[in-house]
Specification:
There is one protein chain. This protein has about 180 residues and is mainly alpha-helical. Helix content is about 60%, strand content about 5%. A hairpin with a 2-residue loop joins strand 1 and strand 2.
Length: about 180
């Protein structure tokens, strides 16, 4: 895949996710955001808070990886190639994979209080992510790497992280939309 195409695709998908949050979730009341379909399932607020946890970690890690790549002179290359681990990570969060996954305790919003500004923070995280995708157009998406949040010994290529994040956002935004429509 062309590196520039990957980042353009990520930006388009992120803008669509941001628009859903702006139009569908921002107007909701606190009660609507926190309504659970069942006691075992997440609310819309919890879906978004889960994504906020990820954005908090990965947006900083992506920025650091871009800065490292710039410092080391790893300029953009025409093609990006996903690693095996990258492909598996992206598949695991694919929106079409409806198999429930267990979130790590520190990434599970149902174990803590979701603050009322959850949607605004989600939109802000999307804005940061979009800006990072633009900055990443200058660096080598194959060489720059980011540690995986849930297993910090492992690293993914920067291109894989962008694909993982946008896919993960789509998965939980779809989940939140299903809750809204129920």
């Amino acid at each position: 895949m062309k590196s520039v195409d990957l980042l353009t695709q990520v930006q388009k998908q992120s803008q669509a996710i941001r628009q859903i949050a702006q139009q569908r979730f921002l107007p909701l009341s606190s009660q609507e955001l926190n309504q659970k379909p069942s006691p075992q399932q997440w609310s819309i607020a919890e879906c978004l808070e889960h994504l906020n946890y990820y954005s908090s970690y990965y947006n900083k890690a992506i920025k650091a990886a871009i800065q490292t790549a710039e410092h080391k002179g790893w300029s953009a290359v025409p093609a990006f190639s996903s690693s095996w681990l990258g492909k598996k990570s992206i598949e695991s969060v694919d929106p079409n994979n409806l198999k429930p996954m267990k979130a790590k305790k520190n990434l599970n919003p149902s174990l803590s209080t979701v603050h009322p500004d959850v949607v605004q923070r989600f939109i802000k995280g999307q804005d940061e992510f979009l800006a990072l995708a633009e900055l990443a157009k200058k660096v080598n998406l194959n060489k720059a790497k980011v540690r995986i949040e849930v297993m910090k010994l492992l690293k993914l290529r920067l291109g894989d992280i962008f694909l993982f994040m946008v896919t993960h956002h789509q998965r939980h935004c779809n989940q939140a939309l299903r809750i809204l429509e129920a």
